[in-house]
Design a protein that fits this description.
The complex is a heterodimer of chains A (209) and B (409).
Chain A lengths: L1 H34 L7 H20 L9 H9 L4 H29 L6 H25 L2 H17 L1 H4 L6 H4 L5 H21 L5
Helix pairs in contact in A: 1-2, 1-4, 2-4, 2-5, 2-6, 4-5, 5-6, 5-9
Chain B lengths: L1 H10 L2 H21 L11 E3 L3 H18 L2 E3 L6 E3 L3 H15 L3 H8 L3 E4 L6 E4 L11 H15 L10 H5 L1 E3 L2 H14 L3 H16 L2 H15 L3 H5 L5 H34 L9 H27 L2 H17 L24 H6 L1 H30 L20
Antiparallel strand pairs in B: 1-6, 2-3, 4-5
The chains are: A mainly alpha (209), B mainly alpha (409).
């Protein structure tokens, strides 16, 4: 019964709130062969699109997770419900993470099919980076209660990865492209920490149930 | 009164505070750390010369190699892309090569066989390099450029054969002592240091000003709706044009504040690094204002209009695409990359004064063009706002009326 209720929440949320975002994430993946060469790439050349494209999809999928409640009418309805908002938020995070994993896997599979030297480890690394930048956007939006700031912070961090990766050290999300070792576990852990910290912050500081 | 009120509102917003932090962060980690007083002469001591013979020979040999392996490396959006041609396009390149070398079918086959085999990386597939294939005698350079332009088009752009790029791809020669001296004289005497540094400052700041302002603009435009203040504002006597343009002016003024602060810091840094040298004290205020204001105006205007019609998410997404296109196209050329319609002008060096001056007319045109476009966009935003105020228009709702892309923050 509870699982049926959760499934209904996911279905309704996806249908009314997140379908355009999921479509945009798929769209980014679909247009990527126009921007990047995705055939016969080896080493760092293969890592470049495999890291950049999931970073963008991560921003698109995670940053607007709290956006539906920006509408006061929806917020009032949600407040009146018995179901905890944290469970709903958790479900949204899970959906975004699953879709991100599927899209990253699809990109890796497509590249491998086209004779690029892409491994499972590289795909996991790309997922970790995308998860971290998505978590950054989510937490910035959660703390300020403003998805616009979430996009702003995460897109700026994306730009910093493009232009000033040396200064980022272990927090560089394009470490496979630039040959920096030991960044991906840091990215995954930072992503999980940011999401947990944002949820705790909203529970304590905003008294969100 | 309204202007002051809007400025106060923006200055106290989280979006503006984050804008300032990110802008300063970008400034300190890029321009500030680059300006060390050890300015090199650019391009690793190489200079591009308009030597037609050198260009034609280099490009021909490179095209022969690419044709033979049917692998053309391009950077259409700043990223590596290996293009492989099929059918008529491949035949057309063959015809062009025959025309440039002045050979018939048999002669061309003989030329192709002259390639020296080499292996790239761990690949077992041999590549063939060409070094001394001659261009047909008295072959016209204009025709050559025309052919290269067509080749670049067939490859989808971003190749080394792009006519504007030919000189930088195939005709780089080491600088002579006189040229190095002239380059340094240009920096110290003609540019009086700060004019060159101001160009580098504009290059970095222009990148950020083509994206960051959209967030603040989208937030301010959506704020009334989010706080359910729109009815209150709609019933005021103030005209829509006045309201929209006052808000626009407030956005521009407030968002230029951190840029102005960066100009002052950049000047102080230059004074400290180049102690005792003669400098143009106003250079950091004149050029950056002309260079950067159109970027700020356009990004803000587009953010306001698209948020008004669609939503802030749509405005951010669109501006991100515009930014990516403006910054990444022609990514390899970082000095004097200034076209007539370039939004983000690039000149990533305090040197190469002459390269910048060659694009001066394009620069002036582009700055005027984007200023006019921005004002037209704002005029359109005022019309849309007025229609919403009168209840004749309620925005465009993408993906249905219940979607997240409806008009809200």
């Amino acid at each position: 019964m509870a699982s049926g209720c959760l499934a209904r929440i996911v279905y309704s949320d996806v249908k009314h709130n997140f379908l355009p975002h999921y479509a945009a994430a798929v769209g980014v993946l679909a247009v990527s062969p126009l921007v990047f060469g995705l055939t016969e790439l080896s080493g760092r050349l293969a890592a470049q699109p495999l890291e950049i494209i999931p970073l963008l999809t991560g921003i698109i999928l995670f940053t607007p997770i709290l956006a539906p409640e920006q509408n006061e009418c929806i917020l009032e309805t949600v407040r009146a419900k018995k179901m905890s908002r944290h469970i709903v938020t958790g479900l949204r995070i899970l959906c975004s993470a699953v879709l991100l994993a599927v899209l990253t896997g699809a990109l890796g599979g497509y590249m491998r099919y086209n004779e690029c030297s892409v491994t499972l480890k590289m795909c996991l690394g790309a997922f970790a980076g995308a998860f971290a930048i998505g978590a950054l956007g989510f937490s910035a939006a959660a703390v300020t209660d403003n998805p616009v700031i979430g996009y702003m912070v995460s897109l700026m961090y994306f730009m910093m990865n493009l232009f000033m990766h040396r200064e980022l050290g272990k927090f560089c999300l394009m470490s496979m492209t630039y040959g920096i070792k030991g960044c991906k576990p840091v990215a995954a852990a930072t992503g999980a920490f940011l999401i947990a910290a944002a949820m705790i912050y909203r529970r304590i500081a905003k008294n969100e149930r | 009164m309204l202007f002051r009120h809007e400025c106060k509102k923006i200055l106290r917003s989280a979006a503006f505070i984050v804008y300032c932090i990110l802008s300063l962060l970008f400034f300190f980690t890029n321009y500030f750390s680059d300006c060390t007083g050890k300015e090199d002469v650019g391009r690793d001591g190489l200079v591009a010369v308009e030597d037609h013979d050198l260009i034609m020979e280099g490009a021909l040999n490179s095209l022969m190699e690419d044709y033979n392996s049917n692998k053309y490396i391009c950077y259409p959006y700043g990223y590596y892309k290996a293009v492989r041609l099929k059918g008529s396009k491949r035949d057309k390149i063959r015809e062009y090569l025959k025309e440039i070398t002045g050979t018939d079918e048999k002669g061309f086959e003989e030329l192709l066989d002259k390639g020296e085999a080499y292996y790239e990386g761990y690949s077992a597939e041999a590549q063939y390099g060409y070094h001394d294939i001659p261009v047909k005698e008295n072959f016209s350079y204009d025709r050559f450029r025309e052919i290269m332009g067509d080749v670049d088009d067939m490859l989808g752009g971003g190749s080394v054969y792009r006519p504007d790029n030919l000189m930088y791809s195939f005709s780089l020669v080491p600088m002579s002592e006189e040229q190095i001296q002239a380059e340094q004289d240009g920096f110290y005497k003609e540019d009086r240091i700060t004019r060159g540094l101001a160009r580098l400052f504009c290059d970095y700041t222009g990148i950020i000003l083509a994206i960051l302002p959209v967030f603040v603009a989208a937030w301010l435009t959506a704020a009334d709706k989010k706080r359910r203040m729109e009815e209150l504002v709609y019933t005021r006597k103030t005209s829509s044009v006045k309201l929209v343009f006052t808000r626009y002016a407030a956005l521009l003024c407030t968002m230029f504040v951190p840029v102005f602060a960066e100009m002052v810091v950049a000047l102080l840094e230059a004074l400290s690094v180049y102690k005792g040298e003669s400098m143009d004290m106003l250079a950091f205020f004149k050029l950056p204002t002309v260079w950067l204001l159109p970027n700020l105006m356009f990004t803000t205007a587009l953010g306001v209009l698209l948020t008004e019609i669609f939503s802030s998410a749509f405005a951010i997404l669109t501006q991100t695409v515009v930014w990516f296109y403006s910054v990444m196209i022609g990514f390899g050329q970082l000095a004097g990359r200034i076209g007539r319609f370039t939004l983000v002008c690039r000149h990533n060096t305090p040197m190469e004064r002459n390269v910048f001056l060659e694009s001066r007319n394009n620069f002036i045109f582009s700055r005027i063009f984007w200023t006019v476009v921005s004002l037209l966009i704002m005029l359109l935003a005022a019309v849309v706002y007025n229609a919403e105020r009168g209840g004749r228009f309620n925005g465009i709702r993408l993906f249905g009326k219940d979607s997240i892309f409806r008009r809200k923050a």
